[in-house]
Amino acid sequence: MPLLLDLLSVLACLAAVAAFVLVGLRLAVPDEPHATPDRPRPRLRRRLIGAAAAIGAFTVLTLATAAQTAFGAPLGDRVGVPVRVAEVGECDQPVLAFGLVKRCDLAAYSSTSPSTDWSGAPVVVSRTVPEPGDEVAQYEVSGWRAYVQVLPRDRTWRPVAEEARPDLTWLPAATMAAATLLAGTIARFAKRRSLPV
User: Fold this and answer.
1) Which helix (H) or strand (E) holds 61?
2) Would you kindly state where each structural domain of the chain is located, as residue ranges?
3) CB of 76 closer than 8 Å to CB of 163
4) For residue 158, which phi and psi values (nearest 5 degrees)?
5) Please, what's the b/e burial string for 71-97 (b: 16 or more CB within 10 A of its CB; e: otherwise)?
6) Which H/E stretch holds residue 81?
7) CB under 8 Å to 41, separation ≥6 — which residues?
8) In the chain, which end has fewer C-beta atoms inside a 10 angstrom radius, N or C?
9) What percent of the chain has a predicted confidence (pLDDT) above 70?
């Protein structure tokens, strides 16, 4: 049930973004006849369509990255030793994660190693809130995986149990490629049909 609510919140957010862009385009650009060679399309319309495409691309990329974090294995290799959660502090949901990812501070944790290579309390990023007794570790993207990632990634704390999930390293790059192909197809279709876009 929580997963269904998360997906519904994602769809509602996408619908709100689409409605905002469409209403903005409608208010800013009045109805005009089809473009002709002696009367080219107005620059304002092209700029607004470009802005809408940029907003759409950013939204799609952010959603793909959130889905990668929520449903995939931790990105990169484990760095250092895992720590065991003793007490979870405050948790929040990042706005750009569309409700799919939670970020929780660890109020108390224990480690088997006396040496630690991080400063401050670990902040665990996961689809669920970590429970006391769970093991979490730091992961860092390196090698070829760092080049596939569209958004740069720093070291992140993730639950060790999520290592069994599928590797979705490719998801953001593949989503952007698919969105680019779809946008190109729509633009070609509109050009063939002489639609005013």
Assistant:
1) helix 43-71
2) 1-28+43-73+167-196, 74-81+131-160
3) no
4) -135, 155
5) ebbbbbeeebebbbbeebeeeeeeeeb
6) strand 77-92
7) 35, 196
8) N
9) 63
Residue with tokens 């990255």: 65
Q: How many residues are present in the chain?
A: 197
Task: Give 126's Cβ-side CA count (13 Å radius).
Answer: 26
Rounded to an integer, what distance in angstroms lies between the CA atom of residue 65 and that of residue 67? 5
Helix, strand or coil for residue 159? strand
- Give the C-alpha separation, 74 to 159, whole Å: 8
158, 74 contact by CB (below 8 A): yes
The answer to whether 72 touches 168, Cβ cutoff 8 Å, is: yes
Q: Is the pLDDT of residue 25 over 80?
A: no
Higher pLDDT, 140 or 32: 140
- Residue 151 CA to residue 1 CA, distance in Å, equals 30
Radius of gyration of the chain (CA): 22
Q: Dump pLDDT digits (tens) for 70-106.
A: 999 998 889 888 999 999 999 998 887 888 899 999 9
Whole-structure pTM value: 0.68
Average pLDDT on 141-160 reads: 72
Backbone angles phi, psi at 124, to 5 degrees: -90, 130
Check: CB of residue 193 under 8 Å from CB of residue 177. Answer: no
